[in-house]
Amino acid sequence: MRTIPITSAFYIDNGELRWAKRGQDQFCSTKACAKWNSRYAGKAAGSDDPVNGYSRVLLNGKSLMSHRVIWILTNGPIPNGMQIDHINGNRSDNRVGNLRIASHGENQLNTKIRKSNSSGIKGVSWRPLSKKWQARVSVNGKQESLGYFTTLAAAEVAAKAARDSSHGQFANHG
Prior knowledge:
By secondary structure, the protein is of the alpha+beta class.
């Protein structure tokens, strides 16, 4: 079996990954290509993983993340050590305008509020001993305290300002 390159297997149509038509001399015989084209060509490629929400496609016996395929088709190879970040945090939104190159650390900054968060505000938690709200922000992979606040609103303002300042375009407030 020949290896089909990503650029020959797919195309993007209105932000959606689709199967490309195969030519008879390219990767299959006339009969096999006709059968494959009638079944798949032009149809949406991939399906959403119910566990993590990422869309995946199967090509050459390998499972590929659809957002990575779309990036490669649009921008070329992904540099070593880099990831593709969904700007709006929606793992199934693979529009080209919603994707950007990011380091692992930058990608981690663009996370949603944790389900276990009890304050409802990212980076803010109640400290029973001091009876105050503590605001924290991640800087270079380490949590830094921004101080203790008597009101939730004050802690929220501090956390958001620190995220905007230290996380830049990857700041995500929840």
